C-alpha cells in the first residue's frame, strides 16, 4: 500500500496559529473620540500636528487607562490555518471564544476606517461572504492592510492545502 507524501509545513490534523493582533483603543467609541480630538487641528510642524501638542498631555491619562482596561478585558483576534477567531480577554488571558469564522467561508476582507481611527493607524476589517453578507467585523485593527493580507493568504493556503489533500486522496483510491 502506498503512503501519501507529506506536504511541507502543512498539518492536516492540528490547528495552528498564523497571526494574533490586539485591537487599538480606537475599537471603542471613546478611543475614536480621543483619536478625533488628537487629529482635530491639521496644522502642524512636519508630522506633529498642533492638536497633538495641545491635547496630547491632557488626554494621556484617560487613553492610558483605556489601553490598560482593553488589554485586561478586551478582545484579541487570531488567524489560524483554518479560521479567524475573536477571543474575549479576562485579566490578560483568553477566556471565551466569541466568534469563529472558517477561512473557506471568507470571500473578501473590506477595510473601513472611521475618522477617529486615523490617528491610531487602525481600521475595521469586515469579513465578507461570497454573497456580500458580513460574516464578522474585527474592530480597531492596527495596520489593517497587513492583517487583511494575512487573512487572505491564510485562506488561499487553506484552499490549496485542501485541493492537494483531495488530489492525494484520489490517488489512493485509484
Characterize the structure shown.
With 174 residues, the chain is α+β, with helices and mostly antiparallel strands. The chain has a single domain (19-173), classed as PH-domain like (Roll), CATH 2.30.29. The protein contains 3 helices and 9 strands; from the N terminus they run E-H-E-E-H-E-E-E-E-E-E-H. The protein has helices at 29-38, 50-73, 144-173, and strands spanning 17-21, 44-45, 48-49, 75-80, 83-90, 93-102, 108-112, 122-128, 134-142. The strands form 3 sheets. Strands 1-4-5-6 form a 4-stranded antiparallel beta sheet. Strands 7-8-9 form a 3-stranded antiparallel beta sheet, with helices on one face. It has a two-stranded antiparallel sheet with strand order 2-3. 22% of the residues are buried. The model is unreliable at 1-6 (pLDDT under 50).
The CATH class, by name, is Mainly Beta
Number of domains: 1
State the CATH architecture.
Roll
Content-based structural category: alpha+beta
What is the terminal-to-terminal distance? 12 Å
Keywords:
single chain; 174 residues; alpha+beta; PH-domain like; 3-stranded antiparallel sheet; 3 helices; 37% helix; 31% strand; elongated
Nutshell version of this structure?
By secondary structure, this protein is α+β, with helices and mostly antiparallel strands. It has helices at residues 29-38, 50-73, 144-173; strands at 17-21, 44-45, 48-49, 75-80, 83-90, 93-102, 108-112, 122-128, 134-142. The strands form three sheets. Strands 1-4-5-6 form a four-stranded antiparallel beta sheet. Strands 7-8-9 form a three-stranded antiparallel beta sheet, covered by helices on one side.
